[in-house]
Fold these 2 entries.
Entry 1:
Amino acid sequence: MNDAELFERFSAGKLSLPAADIDFNSLPWNKHPVFDGVEIKNIVTSAHTNGEFSFHLVRIAPNKKIGLHVHEKQLETHEVISGKGICINDGVEIEYGPGTISIMPMNVKHEVIAGEEGLCLFAKFFPASG
C-alpha cells in the first residue's frame, strides 16, 4: 500500500466508541473557508470529546497552502500521511513528508505549503477546534 492509499483508508475509516461507530465515509469533505485548494474532513469533533480535542483529515492540493496564521487558544499537531511540502513553524522551515510529526504551540505563527504532489495529513487540536 502506498501513502496515498493509506490516507484514503483513513478517509474511509471509522471512529469506534463504546456506544457506536462513526463511519468516515458518511462525513463530508469541506472546502477551507479561507485557503484555496484545502479540504478538511472533521473526523473527531468537540462533541465526541467534550471539547478536549479534535482530529481532522486535511488535503492540500499541489502547490497550494494553508497560509500564515496562529491559534491563540489551541495547540495544533500535524501528522503527515502522504505527499510532501514544508511547514514554517515559528519561523523555522520543516520538511513535510510521510511520517513527519510537527507541533505548533498556542500563539505560534505557522503555515503549510504543499509540494508538487500535494499533501495529506492529520491535524489535531487541543482543545478542540470548532
Entry 2:
Amino acid sequence: MHASPVYELSCTLNSGCDCMRTLRYMVEAMSMRAGLNTIQTNRMLVAVDELFANISKHGYHGREGMIEMRADLQDHRLRFEFRDYAPPIADRHELRGREVDDVQPGGIGLRLIQAIMDEIHHSTMDDGNHWVLIKHLSEGDECDT
C-alpha cells in the first residue's frame, strides 16, 4: 500500500480585491488533481467563493483585510483552509445561517457551503478566525500523477 501524494497550493489575498480569478485557478487546479468532474469542480468553486465573500463582507465589514488561503489534497480528501484577521466570531449562532425556506436575499451562503462540503470547521483565534472546508473523495477519485 502506498501513501497518497500530497498536493498543496497557498496564497495570501486582500479581502477588498476581486480575487475570484486567483481562487478559481487554485480550486480548478486542485479539483483537476483530485479527478473531479466539471459539476463537482463548480461546487467547490461555489463553496470557496461563498466563504471568501462571507469573510470579506461579514468579517471585515467590506474593509480591506488579509485572508490566507491554503488548499491541499491528501488521503482522499480535498481541503481548503482560510485564515483571516477579522474580529473573532464569538457567537456560534452567527455561523448557522438562515433557514432555506426563509426566502429573502442573502444569508444562505453557509447553507450552500454545508450542502457542498462534507466537513466545515471554524475556530476563533486571538486575532481572527480559522476555517477548514473538507470534501471527501472516493478511493478512485484522487489522481496518482
